[in-house]
Amino acid sequence: MSEKPKFYLTTPIYYPSDKLHIGHAYCTVATDTIARYKRLQGYDVMFLTGTDEHGQKIEDKAKAAGVTPKEFVDNIVEGPRGVKDLWKLMNISNDRFIRTTDGYHVKSIQRIFKRMYDNGDIYKGKYVGKYCTPCESFWTESQLVDGRCPDCGREVQDAQEEAYFFRLSKYAGRIQRLLEDTDFLEPRSRVHEMVNNFIKPGLEDLCVSRTSFTWGVPVDFDPGHVVYVWIDALSNYITALGYGNDQYHDFDRFWPADVHIVGKEIVRFHSIIWPAMLMSLDLPLPKKVFGYGWLLLSGGKMSKSKGNVVDPYILSEMFGVDALRFFLMRTFPFGSDGNFSNELLIQTINTDLANDLGNLVSRTTAMVGKYFGGQLPAGCGATGEEKDLAARAAAPETIGMLTAAVGPEKFDAELISLAAGLRGRYQQAMDAYAPHKALEEVFALVQRANKYIDENAPWTLAKEMEANGPRLAHMMYNLLEATRICGILLTPFMPGSCDKLFDQIGACKDCRTWDSAGVWGSLSTTAAVTKGDNLFPRVDMDKALEALDQAEEAARKAQLPPVEVEPQLSEQVDFETFCKCDFRAVKVKDCQPVKKSNKLLRFTLDDGTGADRQILSGIAMYYKPEELIGKTLVAIVNLPPRKMMGLESNGMLISAVHTEHGEEKLHLIMVDDAIPAGAKLC
Ligand code: ME8
Q1: What is the largest CA-CA distance in the chain?
Q2: Residue 16 CA: which ligand 1 atom is closest?
Q3: Rounded mean pLDDT, 108-114
Q4: 583 - beta bridge partners?
Q5: What atom of ligand 1 comes closest to residue 27's alpha carbon?
Q6: Distance separating alpha carbons of residues 92 and 86, to the nearest angstrom
Q7: If you measure from the C-alpha of residue 335 to the centroid of ligand 1, how many angstroms do you get, rounded to a whole number?
Q8: What DSSP string describes 105-148?
């Protein structure tokens, strides 16, 4: 028995410093689609993803949240609606999930660091430069753009400390040749950027240890130093296979990786630092790094700090996981940036899934049900001539359609040749990491099949079943076959929906395979066809957008701290100044809204002096005037008078304020009614 070919592919390991957003889902779905495609083709696949949990950013966030860094990352990775839950919901078929806090990985990192130290590639020196905390990146003065981090544009801090360095400079020549002379990095446009911006100006040695924080892998032979987070993170691709540990034993089987799929801003780490590390460790290099583009929102990068992240949970729950997966792969050319919008998502669902694919399946299954009771007659399948045509159309050298026939057979010939050649065209696109192009090819067939229905007008043929029955049955068979081939090739994108599609058209296990996608006529003519539920219901744009707004707002609020209070002032007030404030108990004699103001209430107060005191207070959104009459409140009474909306206010009522789920709350301070009006508070 011959061994299956191997395919090892990875996503970046994500920082669990915040909940993941649609950009992370985009990358993971793309990698999952490729993994499923390779499995469909019969590869023995290893698909790795995980989380990159060390570094100052996480240490700082944990501190702010009042938990340990491990508790902090545990919650985001393993907790409810965390990273692992999200991948499960999105039907991600990773074979392994690595956390860089896993004990086996930590041990491997220490061994990797020591090995590079022992072979002279890591040495001790002094680091003087700039550090960007959010990016966990060191920069030299010359790399800064306008004095700021060249990646994120934020401010950088001075940094100077004793540190270990990696001799990156030693590998500059080999890396330049790797980038320029091979297909190691794709798309090719990224090569230019790497060589011109990073290698040609002179590759400097890289600072690979830190002493200013502790949340990292300790350098075991020099306590106090932790390993630079990128050395720790990049190594995940080999430690997860068992390099330097006994947890796994797949290194010889799967290394070198076939492809690392990474976002464009981390191409630098993967195409310069990572190969240099592997060269230093004397290990083979991955075959490819593919740098894909970003999903932008209103033209800008999504980021938690900008508050413009899109939650893949909400979208999956609202539109279905497969619709979201499909949209991500169909709409944005994988190597370039794309503009995400909810409108575009809904449009794609309605056009491609509901109108085109959904309609093809439901019309075809409904007609087989209506005209043939759900089972076509035996003998209506592919003719010998059609099989020949399909074989010719599937041959790699045949790209154009073969349309020699005339009459209804012309439509058959067009449909069959397009369907038969589809697998080859799809494969070409998928192998070039262009899933959007693969889907374009599939949808050309979906659209051709829908047109085929209109061209043949089956409803007219069905009026005279006796004469037209065989033609109608053959036509239905062709539609089922075209649908089946589309279903197979769509499976990596929408696994759940394609299973349902196969059930509806009666496709057996053997005619759901990669091989059978290349053979026209694989479906049994007498398969049981059932019109099931609509695979992709149409979405009402306005209603869905409104529901999304509400769901996003609710999710945003749920993430805010339940109660927040203003930090206490550090500046002190001297006792005498404080004693100058005259706080008194006051009783509300009357309270009225102020005309033309939706904020102000006008209080008439008994302050114990015998004369009424008028105070205006901007609390109309918190209280109804009538509910305050008779209450005993606290006022500061020796503030100078102020005019508001033409009325004079003599003092200020004292309230307590805090924020609850992001919303400001206010409570007037009310005291015991037994306290007489005018009593001094001290
Ligand atoms: O970079 N559109 O982690 P990360 C598309 N831990 N992709 C996006 C995106 C967007 N709007 N936002 C982020 C790290 N990404 C490191 C990786 S690998 C050894 C260590 C992508 O969580 C981003 O481009 O910040 C990157 O590829 C991935 O999400 C992880 O980003």
Answers
A1: 110
A2: 22
A3: 98
A4: 636, 681
A5: 7
A6: 9
A7: 14
A8: HHHHHHHHHHHHHHTTSEEEEEEEEEEETTTTEEE-GGG-BTTB
Find the radius of gyration of the CA atoms of the chain. 34
Cα gap 113→127, rounded to integer Å: 18
pLDDT value at position 624?
92
Q: Is the CB of 265 under 6 A from ligand 1?
A: yes
Beta strand pairing status for 642-644 and 647-649? Answer: antiparallel
Q: Measured between alpha carbons, how far is 539 from 519 in angstroms, rounded to an integer?
A: 35
Instruction: Please tell me the distance between residue 41's alpha carbon and the centre of ligand 1 in angstroms.
Output: 28
Q: Residue 157 Cα, ligand 1 centroid: separation in angstroms?
A: 23
Ligand 1 atom nearest to CA at 14 = 22
Q: How far does the centroid of ligand 1 lie from the alpha carbon of residue 135, in Å?
A: 11
Ligand 1 within 6 A of CB of 634: no
End-to-end CA distance of the chain: give it in Å, rounded. 92
- Ligand 1 centre to CA of 292 (Å) is 10
Query: Is the CB–ligand 1 distance for residue 263 below 6 Å?
Result: yes
* Per-residue three-class SS string for 513-551: CHHHHCCCCCCCCCCCCCCCCCCCCCCCHHHHHHHHHHH
Structure tokens at 137: 């990146």
Residue 294 CA to ligand 1 center (angstroms) comes to 9
Cα–Cα distance, 11 to 84 (Å, whole number): 14
Answer whether 393 contacts ligand 1 (Cβ < 6 A). no
pLDDT at 397: 67
Expressed in angstroms and rounded, the spacing between residue 195 Cα and the centre of ligand 1 is 22
Residue 111's pLDDT band (cuts 50, 70, 90): very high
Instruction: Determine whether the shortest distance from the Cβ of 295 to ligand 1 is under 6 A.
Output: yes
E-strand ranges in 30-72 read 44-51
Establish whether residue 231 lines the binding site of ligand 1, counting it when its CB lies within 6 angstroms of any ligand atom.
no
Residue 190 contacts residue 232 (beta carbons within 8 Å): no
Identify the residue whose C-alpha is closest to ligand 1 atom 27: 263
* Residue 392: per-residue pLDDT: 87
- Measured from the Cβ of residue 97, the count of other Cβ atoms closer than 10 Å reads 17
Q: What's the Cα-to-Cα distance from 118 to each of 65, 174, 277, 678, rounded to whole Å? A: 39, 21, 14, 81
Q: At what angle do helices 384-394 and 408-431 cross, to 10 degrees?
A: 30
Question: Is the CB of residue 20 below 6 angstroms from any atom belonging to ligand 1?
Answer: no
Q: What is the pLDDT of residue 221?
A: 97
| Residue of 17, 19, 20, 24 best suited for mutating to test ligand 1, as the one with most atoms within 8 Å of CB | 24
pLDDT tens, position by position, 626-635: 999 999 999 9
User: Whose CA is closest to atom 9 on ligand 1?
Assistant: 23
Cα distance between residue 529 and residue 13, in whole Å? 43
The tokens describing 674, both together, are 């037994």
Residue tagged 């590079």 (tokens): 116
> Closest ligand 1 atom to the C-alpha of 237?
19
Could you give the dihedral angle defined by the CA atoms of residues 40, 46, 47 and 49, in that order, rounded to the nearest 10 degrees? 170
**Which amino acid makes up residue 200?**
K
The dihedral through the CA atoms of 485, 487, 490, 491 has a sign that is negative
SS3 163: strand
Task: Say yes or no to pLDDT of 313 above 90.
Answer: yes
Rounded Cα gap, residues 453 and 363, in angstroms: 9
At 663, the pLDDT band (50, 70, 90 cuts) reads confident
Average pLDDT, the chain: 93
What is the Å distance from ligand 1's center to 544 Cα? Answer: 28
